[in-house]
Amino acid sequence: MAVNVEKMTAEIDLMENAVYRVIDGRLIKVTTPGIGYGKQIITWQAGKPSHCEISFTEK
């Protein structure tokens, strides 16, 4: 991921499966669930993503 702070732009690899959060101009990659089946729940507060919950189950 390449970030240009002056222009406030970021370049990401579109070949990588990922989820990102943007908070106050910062790009943050969300951690992927471990093994098996997983989910990511992002909680919003005051119009901004405040935190995320990551869980997984094994089959």
Tally of helical runs: 0
Instruction: Give the CA-based shape.
Output: flat
Uncertain ranges: none
How many angstroms separate the termini? 33 Å
* Largest beta-sheet characterization: 2 strands, antiparallel
Q: How much helical structure, as a percent, in the residues?
A: under 10%
Structure described in brief:
With 59 residues, the chain is mostly beta strands. It has no helices and six strands.
Question: Can you characterise this structure?
Answer:
This protein is mostly beta strands. It has no helices and 6 strands. It has strands spanning 2-4, 9-11, 20-23, 26-29, 37-45, 48-57. Strand 5 (37-45) and strand 6 form a beta hairpin. The model has no long low-confidence stretch (mean pLDDT 87). This is DUF3954 domain-containing protein. Pfam families: DUF3954.
Identify the notable features of this structure and list them briefly.
59 residues; two-stranded antiparallel ribbon; 6 strands
Topology:
Layout: E1 2-4, E2 9-11, E3 20-23, E4 26-29, E5 37-45, E6 48-57
Antiparallel strand pairs: 1-2, 3-4, 5-6
